[in-house]
């Protein structure tokens, strides 16, 4: 098959990890006889430096004209003083909004050989395999009114949590459909004991669940969920939740697997999906060749599955990652005694080699 992939490395370690993922996609194309055309553009701080805007029109156009988007990460201390409306993060939010990417899939799966890299006990996390389904274009990230205004006492900062029936319905469906391909259990995370938006969330999720009698539905308050994730995470299969709760809980879920540097994501819902690691731009380690490229490489596997229905190819990428880990190679974030420390480029090259020679 032929496809055009928009490559948006962004900031910080994005510039180091994304090329490794592109090499992997090139190897997939060569091995399985596909043609991927890569078109790179600036996004986030890198785009601000060149154009003054985090999501230039050219970048958005390129994204819209492609078949899939591979994104690194955006943001960094250099741009932190800027007004919210032009910060690097706006690029991500803009892409999500403009492309209608309301469903963010964040799988947290433990590679058993990394169990000791987790801060949790092996027995708590061994076999962990959960999927966070995060609503991505609504809630407090986008609700109005919003802003900072002057008051007689100083200033007032406002954000608003808004969810409508159709928004909840469509994300709930994504969760139930995903659960059908997994262990058939959905846990809906809300704060229905306090928030009206959560009360509606719960009601609509229950309504959608009527169409999925084969899937078990459970509700949990977000504070309890945060606690249960470190106490007994294996009780969960699919977690479905709002934009903000999902942002927080997916970082927590990622860390159960040892490193946030391992976890991929797919943002779906529109005609074009966006694939990116769940971690950020990590400016503290940028440019040092120590960042873990696995989350981004694993995101290409999600791209192959969701954008191109290339399941065999996706499995090949996942297997290559697995084999390199089995051989004991580790980047700094997952390094432990008795394993072999490698940098970003070498980790990428090792995975590439596995993919080419398998
Ligand atoms: C994420 C990130 C983003 C978010 C930021 C960078 C805007 O934390 O993708 O989880 O909050 O959604
Ligand atoms: Mg986040």
Q: How would you sum up this structure, described in words?
A:
- By secondary structure, this protein is α/β, with parallel strands linked by helices.
- It folds into two domains: 1-101 and 259-358, Isopropylmalate Dehydrogenase, CATH 3.40.718; 129-256, 3-Layer(aba) Sandwich (Isopropylmalate Dehydrogenase), CATH 3.40.718.10.
- It has helices at 14-32, 45-51, 57-65, 88-98, 122-125, 165-180, 196-209, 222-231, 243-256, 294-306, 311-326, 344-357; strands at 2-10, 35-40, 68-73, 103-109, 129-135, 147-151, 154-158, 185-190, 216-221, 238-241, 264-268, 273-277, 329-330, 340-341.
- Helix 8 packs parallel to helix 9 (243-256).
- The mean pLDDT is 97.
Listing every helix as H and every strand as E from the N terminus to the C terminus, the arrangement reads EHEHHEHEHEEEHEHEHEHEEHHEEH
Q: What percent strand? A: 15-25%
How many separate helices? 12
Widest sheet, order of strands: 2-1-3-12-11-4-5-10-8-9
The overall average pLDDT, rounded, is 97
Alpha-beta classification:
alpha/beta
Bound ions, cofactors and other small molecules, one mention each: 3-isopropylmalic acid, magnesium ion
Stretches with pLDDT under 50, minimum 5 residues: none
**Percent in helix:** 40-55%
Instruction: Please state the second-level CATH architecture of the largest domain.
Output: 3-Layer(aba) Sandwich
Rounded radius of gyration (Å): 20 Å
């Amino acid at each position: 098959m032929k496809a055009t992939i928009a490559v948006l490395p962004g900031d910080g370690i994005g510039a180091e990890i994304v090329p490794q993922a592109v090499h992997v996609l090139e190897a997939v194309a060569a091995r399985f006889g596909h043609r991927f055309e890569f078109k790179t553009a600036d996004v986030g701080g890198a785009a601000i430096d060149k154009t003054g805007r985090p999501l230039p029109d050219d970048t958005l156009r390129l994204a819209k004209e492609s078949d899939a988007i591979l994104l690194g990460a955006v943001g960094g201390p250099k741009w932190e003083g800027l007004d919210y409306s032009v910060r690097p993060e706006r690029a991500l939010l803009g892409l999500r909004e403009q492309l209608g990417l309301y469903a963010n899939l964040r799988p947290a799966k433990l590679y058993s050989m990394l169990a000791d890299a987790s801060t949790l006990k092996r027995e708590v996390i061994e076999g962990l395999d959960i999927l966070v389904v995060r609503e991505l274009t609504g809630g407090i990230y986008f609700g109005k009114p919003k802003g900072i205004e002057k008051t007689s006492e100083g200033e007032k900062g406002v954000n608003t949590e808004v969810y409508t029936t159709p928004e909840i319905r469509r994300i709930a469906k994504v969760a139930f459909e995903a659960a059908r391909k997994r262990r058939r259990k959905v846990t809906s995370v809300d704060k229905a004991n306090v928030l009206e938006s959560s009360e509606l969330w719960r009601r609509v999720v229950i309504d959608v669940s009527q169409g999925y009698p084969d899937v078990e539905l459970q509700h949990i308050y977000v504070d309890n969920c945060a606690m249960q994730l470190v106490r007994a995470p294996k009780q969960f299969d699919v977690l479905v939740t709002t934009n903000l709760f999902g942002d927080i809980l997916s970082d927590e879920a990622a860390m159960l697997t040892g490193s946030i540097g391992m976890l991929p994501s797919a943002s779906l819902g529109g005609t074009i999906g966006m694939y990116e690691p769940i971690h950020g731009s990590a400016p503290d380690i940028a440019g040092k060749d120590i960042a873990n490229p696995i989350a981004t490489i694993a995101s290409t596997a999600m791209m192959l599955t969701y954008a191109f229905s290339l399941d065999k190819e996706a499995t090949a990428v996942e297997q290559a990652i697995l084999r390199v880990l089995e051989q004991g190679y580790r980047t700094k974030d997952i390094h432990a005694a008795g394993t072999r420390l490698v940098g970003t480029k070498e980790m990428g090259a090792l995975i590439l080699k596995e993919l080419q020679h398998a």
